[in-house]
Design a protein that fits this description.
two-stranded parallel ribbon, 15% strand
C-alpha cells in the first residue's frame, strides 16, 4: 500500500510515520512544508515531498506523481488558542489545503481511501447533559479553529455525497505525548518543569484555567486509531476518537509536578485564559470501537512521564544555544 500522510513532520504525523515504518507492506510518502526534525531517524523509510498545500497546481501534480492508495490528511493549523489571534490564517490553512487535496484525489485517485482528521472542537459548546459526546451531537463551534474544523468535516462528507470519494472523518479528542508543541496545556507544563529543573526559569509554573476537564489519549494510541479507521472504516462516516473519560487539567498538572523532586509554585496567567472554554469533554467512542476494535493502551501517567522526558532531553539539547530556533515548538502549522 502506498500511503500519503500530509503533515508528516507534525506531532501526530511523525508518530504515525513511526508506527507504520516497521511495516514492509507500506510505502510511506509524506508532505512537509518546513522542517523534518522529528523524522530524521526515519528518513530511510520515507519518501518526502516538500511543498505548500495551498498551491492547488503543486498538490495536483504531487498527487498525480505519487498516486497514493490511501491518504491521511493531518496537515493543519492546530493551535486553538492561536486561532483567536489569526482567524483568517486558520481558515485558509485548514480549509484551502483540504479542498486542494480532495480535488486532486478526485482527479487522479478517486477510489483511494481518505481519512480526514478534524477535532472535538467541532462540537464546541457542549452542555453537561449531552455527555458523553457522540457523532450525532450538534456542531456548536466556539473558536475560529472549531469553525475551520467544521468546514473540513462537512467538506469531507460533501465529497463523499457528491463524488463518492471514500472519505472517513475522524473527530479526535485531545491527545498528548512526547514531541507535542507547548501550545497545549500538558506540554506547556512539562516544558516549564524541564526548564525550571535546568535553572532556566524561576520555580513558578504559569497556567490557565485548571478546572476544565478533557478526554486525553496518548498520541501513539490516536495514530493507531487512524490506521485502523483507514483500513476498516465505512466511507462517508464520522468517528470520534478518544479514551472515553475525562480528567481535570488540575490533575494533569498535579501528576506532572509529582514527577519532579523540586518544589514549584503555580500562578495563573491571564494571557493563558481563552475567551471561551468548555467545562468538560468526554468522548463516546463506541462507533469506532465497533468498526475497528480499537482500544487505548497507554495510560495517562505513562503519557505524562514520556512527555516530560522528551522536554528534558530537548531542554538539554538547547541549553547554551539561545540563537538556535527550535522548530518543534515555534508557532506555525504543520503543513
Amino acid at each position: 500500500m502506498r500511503i500519503l500522510i500530509t503533515g508528516i513532520a507534525g506531532f501526530a504525523g511523525s508518530h504515525l510515520a513511526e508506527y507504520l515504518a516497521p511495516r514492509d507492506e507500506v510505502e510511506i510518502h509524506g508532505v512537509i512544508h518546513r522542517h523534518d526534525r522529528r523524522l530524521q531517524h526515519l528518513l530511510a523509510r520515507l519518501k518526502l515531498h516538500r511543498g505548500d498545500l495551498r498551491n492547488a497546481l503543486w498538490v495536483s501534480e504531487m498527487i498525480g506523481a505519487v498516486r497514493p492508495d490511501a491518504l491521511i490528511h493531518l496537515a493543519a493549523w492546530s493551535d486553538v488558542g492561536g486561532s483567536w489571534q489569526q482567524p483568517w490564517t486558520t481558515y485558509e490553512l485548514n480549509i484551502q489545503c483540504q479542498l486542494n487535496l480532495l480535488e486532486a484525489m478526485g482527479r487522479h485517485r478517486p477510489d483511494s481511501r481518505i481519512v480526514i482528521v478534524t477535532s472535538t472542537e467541532v462540537y464546541g459548546l457542549v452542555q453537561p447533559d449531552e455527555l458523553p459526546i457522540d457523532e450525532e451531537t450538534p456542531f456548536r463551534p466556539n473558536s475560529p479553529y472549531g469553525v475551520s474544523k467544521v468546514a473540513q468535516d462537512v467538506m469531507g462528507l460533501q465529497y463523499w455525497n457528491s463524488h463518492r470519494l471514500p472519505v472517513m472523518r475522524l473527530r479526535s479528542f485531545n491527545h498528548i505525548g512526547p514531541g507535542q508543541s507547548d501550545d497545549f496545556a500538558a506540554s506547556s507544563f512539562a516544558r516549564q518543569i524541564a526548564e525550571i529543573e535546568a535553572d532556566l526559569r524561576p520555580p513558578v509554573i504559569r497556567v490557565g484555567n485548571l478546572s476544565t476537564r478533557r478526554d486525553l489519549t496518548d498520541v501513539r494510541d490516536i495514530v493507531r486509531a487512524y490506521w485502523l479507521a483507514l483500513r476498516q472504516g465505512e466511507p462517508g462516516t464520522a468517528y470520534n476518537v478518544g479514551r472515553g473519560r475525562s480528567v481535570s487539567i488540575q490533575t494533569v498538572l498535579d501528576q506532572l509536578l509529582a514527577l519532579t523532586p523540586l518544589s514549584i509554585a503555580v500562578k495563573t496567567d491571564p494571557a493563558r485564559l481563552r475567551p471561551s472554554d468548555v467545562p468538560d469533554s468526554v468522548c463516546d467512542n463506541r462507533r469506532l470501537v465497533a468498526a475497528t476494535g480499537w482500544q487505548p493502551q497507554i495510560d495517562l501517567k505513562t503519557s505524562l512521564r514520556d512527555l516530560l522526558e522528551s522536554w528534558r532531553r530537548q531542554v538539554k539539547r538547547n541549553a547554551g544555544q539561545p540563537d538556535n530556533v527550535d522548530l518543534n515548538t515555534t508557532r506555525f502549522p504543520d503543513v
